[in-house]
User: What shape does this take?
Amino acid sequence: MIRTLAAALLLAAPAVAQTPDKWRGVEADHVVRNFTFASGETLPELKLHYLLLGTPHRDAQGRIDNAVMVLHGTGGSGRQFLQPQFADKLYGPGQPLDLAKFYVILPDGIGHGASSKPSDGLHAKFPHYNYDDMVKAQHAVLADALGLDGLRLLMGTSMGCMHAFVWGETYPGFAKALMPMACLPVEIAGRNRTWRKLAMDAIRADPAWAGGDYTAQPVAGLRTAIALGMIAGSVPLRQQVEAPTRAAADAAVEARTTADLARADANDQLYALDASRDYNPQARLGTITVPVAWINSADDFINPPGLKIAEAEVGKMPKATFRLIPETAAGRGHSTHTWAKFWEADLRALLKRSE
Assistant: This one.
């Protein structure tokens, strides 16, 4: 996939750097010692990177009561939420997450961004993390690094959307409201599992992958995985407008493939896709009792609306609503989750009904 703060809150975060973006904030790392994964594997030091925007507010009891965490998708990082289509619609004066009122936390998940990942050096010896591990690590950042015992709001996009459902079940009531966008709360199966497995198989089948111990990227396998990801993120109506000829479509493919290959790491991509292998919050959705605004889009290849899964599951959560954004030529497919203009009003309504 892609700010001022009270210094007292950074005591447990040794590495701090300023970001060069329009929405300036603080970047920091939290290191968890001897982190144990669901697989039973351990890591002596797990580095968790995060970005902080805005200023924390404390209530009469001294608790921070204005924290919002936003969780990214597969292959992304917290920095993606600095992009204009997201940040410029949400963080400014009078906007839904006005940084004069809210304290926004943008973590990099395990295996992503500047957090610990296979490409740091362990390669295929890196622990095989799953979504439960990623949520556990996010909680460690909030509780241990930032001293939080709750969130005003938890938002999540794509993989982060799935994390939101895991959060709601694992830490009931920790977030006063949930806004999951672009996912389904059921086992990864059918076409969604198929494209992921094909991408993983392509990487593993490339002889240059060498069991994960490659010295140069396995380009053939990566190219196929990137191609499958392109299809998964495709936007039919918009692409027909933007690439109305064969030459235009071919040029767009080559440009995207070249750009993605330049920054991709095979093990990081393989692990990130594999992390969804045992995700399945379906049976415990009823334990999520806080207000939920769940948003999907009709042009999402990964979560096709024809399955009618969302309509069947939303009623299990007593305070949940579901809205399907219609397909139009202005749509962004699966990536609609990062374009706030499509769902800004839903966010405002959720904040109002969860006061």
Q: What stands out?
A: The chain has two domains: 7-187+280-353, 190-274. The chain has ten helices and nine strands. The longest strand covers residues 42-53. Residues 1-20 have pLDDT under 50 and may be disordered.
